[in-house]
Design a protein that fits this description.
Layout: E1 3-7, H1 12-17, H2 19-28, E2 33-39, E3 54-58, H3 62-70, E4 76-79, H4 84-93, E5 97-99, H5 104-113, H6 123-128, E6 167-170, H7 182-189, E7 196-199, H8 205-215, E8 222-224, H9 231-239, E9 243-247, H10 250-257, E10 261-265, E11 282-285, H11 309-312
Parallel strand pairs: 1-2, 1-4, 2-3, 4-5, 6-7, 6-9, 7-8, 9-10, 10-11
Helix pairs in contact: 3-4, 7-8
Amino acid sequence: MTKFLILRFSSIGDIVLTTPVVRCLKLQYPEAEVHYATKKSFKTLLKNNPYIDKVFVLENGLNQLIKSLQAEDYDYIIDLHNNLRTSIIKFRLGIKSFRFDKLNLQKWLLVKFKKNFMPNVHIVDRYMKTVEFLGVKNDNKGLDYFIPEKDKMPLDWLPENFRNGYAIYAIGGQHETKKLPLHKMIELCQTIKLPLVLIGGKEDFEMGEKLISAICLPTSKIFNTCGKCSLNQSASLIQNSKIIYTHDTGMMHVASALKKKVISIWGNTVPEFGMYPYQTDFEVFENEDLNCRPCSKIGYDKCPLGHFKCMNDLKFS
C-alpha cells in the first residue's frame, strides 16, 4: 500500500487551498493512505476531511513530530509549504519528496519593482503540479470544506429577520493593511441591502460593535457574531448565506469551498499573487490606480507610506 504525507503547517486559507490535492490524490489512488501534517491550531480544518486518513500536528516541537512520522514508513512526501521546517522533515525522513514552488523571486519583483512575472495560474493549480509526477490530475471540483453536524448552525439561532436570507461580512484579517478601516466598513455596509451577519474572531468583536453603533442599524438588520462562533460554526453561517463580503483572508477561501458568491476586497495585496477565490462566482474590489500596490505579499500593521489609499480610496460601485 502506498502512503503519502502532505505537509502544510499554516494558515486557514492556505490549508483550504490544498484540499484539491488531497481529494484528487485519494480518489485517484483509492488504495493509498493520505496523511497530513499541520500545526495543532489548524487540525480542525482537516479532521473532518474524508480524503485524509490521518492528521499529525506540530505541537511539542519538530523532533517529536518527526519521530511520529518516521514510524509511518511513507513512500512519498508532498511538500506544499516549502520552508525550513518542511525541509528538515524531508531530510530526516530521507524519502522521495516533491515540493511546491513558492515563486518567491517573482513575488519579490512584483512587490519591490511592480514587475509582474507571476504566471497567470491560480495557486491551486500550482499546488496540483506537485502531484503531476504521479499522474494525478485536477478534477476541477474546487475546494473542500467539511462542516461536522454538531457545528451546523440552525437558522433560528439568528434573529427572525435573517431567516429568509442574509449576507455575511468577514471583517477580520491577520494584517491591518488587508482590512478596511472603520469609515470604509461603514460605507460598504450601507450598500448591502440584505440583513448582514458579521463574522470574525474574538479580536474582531469590538470593531463589529463600533460598526453597528456607527451605522445605527437595529439588530434586525445587522448581527455581530465575532468571537461567538468557532471556525466551523462561522463556516456554517457562510454556507447558509446568500453572499459573502470578505477581505483577502482565509474566510474568502472557506466561502469559495462552500461555492458561495464572494465579493473580495483587496488592500495592500493583489489577486495577481494567484490566491483569488477559486472556482466560485466572485467579484473583486481593489484600487488599481496606485503605483505602490502591492507593498507586501502578506501585509503590515499600518500603511508604509501613511496614506492607506489602497483602502481609503476604494470604490464600492
